[in-house]
Write a structure and sequence with these properties.
The chain has 523 residues and is an alpha+beta fold. The protein is built from 19 helices and 16 strands.
């Protein structure tokens, strides 16, 4: 069956509804609500439970239609998607662009302004909900096809925007190669990759990759890359002559398709001539050597290849670099070199794997912002003090472990499918780090920040250290969560050999257990 035929088979209203329901689950922040629903347990008994998954945050596109309105009109939207999709007349609406700050900057207008001055800005594209669903249906067909090709040819090298692969997998692999002696690093960064992708070249690559006979699929992929954009702060759409939307459902896949020839050049040509290891995540990649002599030669070959692809590598870092400029780098991670590689939020060297300082600074700003958002100002009574510290404990814990502590589990595993539950929290992402001193410093920072916030609110009132610690003793220690999560992973690996994660996102709040319960069956 061709890709076109598979896509046409998907274009039925039920699939549109299913994709929308999955989108809601993906964009749901689990918080308690007053709503109650009746569920059937495994013994066919009807049980009423409080619904916890009630805060759905789906960005609104240029049509102004939010998820609630879309759901009310789901029948009309389903018919539109299926009818237009089959007739090859479906058109994407312009994508709204928004700017977000990169680490170490946090959220908010002030942080965004600071980030803009330093060039630490990421532009994301927001599609309408209808277009997001259409992209997801399209992606289901082309992703499965693409993944077979990637798995066969570059499975050990490409980690971004792929099912079953993650940024943490890439970091683990790099750390392993460092231990094997690949300590001379070429850290490459493609200049403005998503904004600089040439449309003619991408179309040519798509036709070759997805087979030109799949005319319907290719027609929609072409429309996607050419979709108009509405820059932040503007109300009219502009033509997109170069680059692809960043943040779209199809964006990562098409980025991998565009760089597939580059991957093959590195793997099938350069790696057969020079001994090194290669890891790529989106537009960031590293080449790892056991000796430094060939780095310059290989770098020049990469520059030449990418120039032919109408892309540019950032130049190598000079002796006196511009503080605001971005550079590719040659690093010596050996004991003699004492350098480290910054990659996907981690600092990697022969001696350590730790959290990048920018990410710690950003987390620190989140803690400060969380405290500043607490609306308790009058401390004339004990009730006010209690209210303040109760809010501090609840909100800071959520920043550290999100809702992990509320989920019903069996030593970190799903009670239904017995697979490990993914840790969707800040410390959950960084629990690969080995420098525990950093985590202890973060614990100290959290408590120091609380003390300063309290003194500021009470106009310099002194609070005895022992009393403060008693007041906030309910706050989780980052270090304790780190050791607990790592212990769960070790136990799971000991019992099952290979770590597998539960993918079930259907969760509800059991008010008797006071826990978030995962609703079976798991996939």
């Amino acid at each position: 069956m061709s890709l076109d035929e598979k896509f046409l088979e998907l274009l039925v209203p039920k699939n549109v509804v299913d994709v929308f329901e999955q989108l809601k689950r993906d964009k749901t922040d689990i918080v308690p609500s007053i709503k109650v629903e009746e569920l059937v347990d495994e013994n066919d008994k009807k049980i009423k439970h409080k619904v916890l998954v009630n805060k759905i945050e789906i960005a609104v596109g240029c049509d102004g239609i939010g998820h609630m309105q879309f759901e009310r009109e789901i029948s009309r939207h389903s018919s539109y998607i299926c009818d237009k999709g089959k007739k090859s007349t479906y058109q994407f609406r312009p994508f709204k662009e928004i700017h977000t700050a990169k680490p170490p900057y946090g959220k908010g207008k002030d942080e965004l302004k600071k980030a803009e001055k330093e060039g630490k800005i990421r532009t994301l594209s927001i599609s309408t909900i209808r277009d997001t669903i259409f992209q997801k249906l399209l992606a289901k067909v082309v992703s499965e096809y693409a993944e077979k090709i990637f798995k066969a040819q570059i499975d050990l090298n490409s980690y971004g925007y792929r099912d079953g692969k993650s940024s943490k997998d890439a970091v683990k692999k790099i750390r392993r190669y460092v231990d094997e002696g690949y300590v001379y690093i070429l850290d490459g960064d493609i200049k403005g990759f998503f904004d600089e992708i040439n449309h003619d070249l991408l179309v040519e690559k798509m036709e070759r990759f997805f087979i030109a006979d799949n005319k319907l699929i290719l027609r929609y992929l072409k429309r996607f890359i050419q979709v108009k954009k509405i820059p932040e702060g503007k109300s009219t759409a502009e033509k997109r002559d170069i680059g692809i939307p960043q943040g779209g459902v199809l964006s990562g896949l098409l980025a991998n398709v565009f760089l597939f020839d580059f991957d093959l050049f590195v793997v099938n040509t350069l790696m057969k001539t020079y001994e090194f290891r290669y890891i790529r995540y989106a537009d960031d990649f590293v080449l790892m050597f056991k000796a430094p002599e060939m780095l310059d030669c290989v770098f020049n070959k990469l520059v030449t290849f990418l120039n032919n692809e109408k892309l540019k590598l950032h130049p190598l870092r000079p002796t006196t670099p511009d503080r605001k400029a971005k550079y590719s780098e040659m690093l010596d991670l050996s004991n003699a070199g004492r350098e480290s590689l910054d990659f996907l939020g981690f600092e990697i060297s022969k001696k350590f794997l730790r959290i990048k300082s920018d990410n710690i600074k950003k987390f620190s700003k989140r803690i400060s912002k969380t405290l500043s958002d607490i609306k308790v100002f009058n401390f004339d009574s004990d009730d006010a003090h209690n209210a303040y510290f109760n809010l501090v404990v609840a909100r800071i814990n959520k920043k550290i472990t999100a809702l992990e502590e509320t989920i019903d589990h069996e030593n970190g595993s799903c009670p239904s499918c017995k697979k490990l539950l993914p840790k969707r929290s800040w410390i959950g992402y960084f629990m690969m780090a080995k420098d525990v001193r950093q985590l202890r410093d973060i614990d100290t920072m959290i408590r120091t920040t609380i003390y300063r916030d309290y003194r500021k609110r009470t106009h310099g009132r002194h609070l005895d250290k022992e009393l403060l610690l008693k007041r906030i003793m309910g706050i989780k220690f980052v270090t304790d969560s780190y050791y607990e999560y790592r212990s769960q992973m070790r136990e799971y690996k000991r019992n099952h050999g290979k770590i597998e994660y539960c993918q079930n996102k259907k969760r509800y709040y059991d008010h008797h257990m006071k826990k978030i319960v995962i609703q079976p069956p798991c996939e």
